[in-house]
Every structure is written in C-alpha cells, then in structure tokens.
Input
Amino acid sequence: MNWILDIPFVGSHLLTTIIFVPLIGVALLLLIKNKNGMNDNVVKWVALITTLVELFLGIFIVLRFDTTTHSMQFVEKVSWIPALNINYSLGIDGISVLMVFLAAFIGWVCILASWKAITTKVKEFMILILIMQTAMIGVFCSMDIILFFIFWEAMLIPMYLIIGIWGGVNKLYAAIKLFIYMLAGSTLMLVGIIILYYHAGQTFDIQAMAAVSYGFEFQVFIFILFFVAFAVKVPTFPFHTWLPDAHVQAPTAGSIILAGVLLKMGAYGFLRFSLPMFPDASQYFSVPLCILSIIAIIYGAFLALAQTDMKKLIAYSSVSHMGFVTLGIFLLNKNGIEGGILQMFNHGITTSALFLCVGMIYERTHTRMLDRYGWASKLVPVYAFFLFLFSIAAMGFPGTNGFIGELMILIGAYETHKIYIVFMILGIALGAAYMLWMYKRIAFGTPVEGFGHGGVTTPPKYPAPKKGTIKDINIRELIPILAFLVFVFWVGLHPMDFLNLLHVSVDNLVEQVGAVAASGAIK
Output
C-alpha cells in the first residue's frame, strides 16, 4: 500500500486527504441531476465509493502509524489567520488514531444501511452523511483548537437535518433538543477557548496550550467550561436526556453515527484537553466525575430495563456503556485510560451493529416495539444469530470486545478505588439482564404457529407473521454485519493489536497528570 505515498499531494497530506475526500464526493453528488429521484442509484453508488475510499485511507493510516512514539504523526501545519495566530494544523497520536479509523469505517456502513430505508431526498441525505464524516474525522485530527471547534460545530447542522427531515414522528422535537444541548455546551467551550488563548500566550496550538502551567483556580474554571461541552456530547449523567430522543427519532444511519462516533467526541475532548491542559483540576474532580460515571452506569442500565422500544433500550444502554468510558478516563491511571479508549472503540462497533440490526428488522415490520416480536429465531434465524452475537458482545461476554475494555477499567479501579468495582459489577450484571431480556423478547416468545400449541390456549396479542412473509438478511446487509463481527472477535481475542496503538501515548498522558499528584499540587 506504500504506493499511496507516491501520489502527488496525498502522500504528504494524508490527514487532509482523509478529511476532505467526503467533500469531493459531495461535489460529485451536486453535479448529478436527480429530478424526482431518477438517479437515486447513481447517487448511492457515488456516496458508497467515496466512503470506501475513506475506509481504505483509514486502514492505511493505521498500518503506517508508528507505535513507538507519543509525538504527533502525519503532521501538517499551514498558517491560516496570522493576525490571530490561527493555523491549519493536523496530527494524530495513539489517543486519536483508533477514533480516526472508526469514523472512516462507519461511513460506508451508513450508506448501506440507508440503501433502501431512505426513499425521499436521497441525494440530500447522502450529502449530509458525507459532510458529517468530514466533520467527525476533522475533530480527531485537529491540533489547532479553533480548527477543532469549527469541525466540532460543523457536525451539528447535518445531524440536525438528518433527524429533522428523515426522522420519526417526533423528529423536530428531538432535532431541536439535540441542537440546543449541543450549542449550549459549545458556547461555554468557546468562552473557555478565548480565555485560554490569552493565558497561553495568544496561541491556539493545542500542544502549546498543554505545555503552559496554569494556576489551580484558573484550571478549575476552564475545566468546568470545557466539561459541560464534553459531558453533553458523551453524554454524561445528568446531561444525557437528549440522547434517547435523538436515537429513537433518527434514521438508522443517524443512530449509527451518533453511537459510533459522535458520542466519542466528548470522551476524546477529556483526553485531548481536560487531562493534559488541566491536570490539577482533573485530579481535583476525578472522584466526583467517577461517581457521576457510576451513576450513569447504574441509572442507564435500569432505564434500559424499563424500555419497550428496542431502539430506546439500546440508546439508554449507551448512557450506561459510556459511563464505563468516562470512569476509565478519570481513574487517571494507565489501565483505566487505555480501557476507556478501547471501550470507546468497542462501543462504536457493537452499538452501531445493534442499531443496524434494529434498522434491518424495522424495515421489514415497521415497528420497534418489543411486544410485537418473539418470532425472530424461527422466521429470520440468520438475523437472530447475529443479533445474539452483538448482544453478548454488548454485555461484555468473554471472548468479545466488550469484555476486554471492561476488564481493563476494572483493573484500573482496583489500583485506585476498589469500591468502584462493586458498582461496576452491578452495572455489568444489569447490562447482561437488559441485553438478554431484549434478545429473548425479539427472538423467542410468541408461538410462530399461533395459539393452541404447547399448552397455549390464549391467542397472542400480536400474532407472529406467517412464514415466508418476513425475509432474512440479504447480502447488502450481511457485509457490514460481518465487518462489525470481525472487530468484535478481533479485539476480544487479540486485543494487543489495538492496545499497542495506545500504550506510548497513554503513558505520556498519565505522566502529565501523575506528575501533578507526585508534586503535591493537589492537597
């Protein structure tokens, strides 16, 4: 694959290329005349090919990544607005490389998931998906905080439109709620950025800002401003209430983007800004934030248990799972942070796959209510088999990706606050309960042949469809399912392939934060 480096511009601007290739796809789509949907298939294929190019570039970047250094790699820096010292500055390290790959991986899945589900304004929908991919990858590559903020905000409008136009019955409510929450958090972060700019010597360079030593009170103030923006995006309890509405109302591709990448931006913000820039404040707030994370784990799990809509159940499970991520990060030790980053990637894979499965069955039945199912194991056995695998991965079954991430966070908790382990185990047990309960209600329950069999004398409230009326998954759906499954077992059975990408950068981050505790800065 080294021939890519010989391509003019691309070889020396890999990050720029992977960020802006989707916009090239957008330009091509704008050239396609698609009156009354006459060229919908052409639009879909252009979008799919564009996202496959993104995937190829994402794989290449991971293969070229040097695991022996914590320094930024594939660095690009060009003066952008000299008067304000704003630069077009890009780079990735071990903390961001998996997120860049995840954002590149999710794109083509979203296109395939929308192939039949989106029937109106197809061209506009595909354009918004591609713009979202540019914004998401840009967030993880930016090394200038203004550039980061621009990409951070750029994803808000496309997501608002994706939910507001192609969403469910209450789509406008969900879209506006998401917009208000995100904008409020971002406004506070912008205030923090401006204040930080002057205290850091009038620079927006992220590494330069992190190299400056700030006073404790100043760190606490800016930490809080940034925290609100990141906590809303995660979402951390109690800033989570926009998420279930957004997930339920969003089309399948929108839910995949939300679960797969957008939630990771908040956790990434903690890792890129809060810990290295405000280490004193991170130490000071570590216990309260771990407690909030534990509340999210337990509270999100109980809410998931109470749901009758399968999509809302998975949405609340995200609140619980992301609680593990933030807990791992604010344990402030190597195992906890590495487990948190790995769990960010794992959640992006597993929960995206679950939302894809929800979309598949919804296309066939036009309902997400769990009491309408119970027949999947007999009518769509292949679908039921894959849903089972992703369900056990989501609950952290040994051998799957979820187990490794949760295990590392448990080990990290043992090193610092052993009491956290009790609540984490409760959260894991509740996770197993709601995932198995969901699977049982989808795959087993309603007698396929109606009542009168096996001692059943009362007809089911919602009889199962007749055999042959519901088709099992097809090849278009099978390809992304298998791709997700590869990572479920790859991470689960050979996690070092992924952890090796993180080690050196996480060591450096822990050293930055740990040096504060060693110096006695926190009393």
Notes: Residues 304-514 form one domain. Strands lie at 73-81, 86-92. The longest helix spans residues 334-365. DSSP finds 20 helices and two strands in the chain.
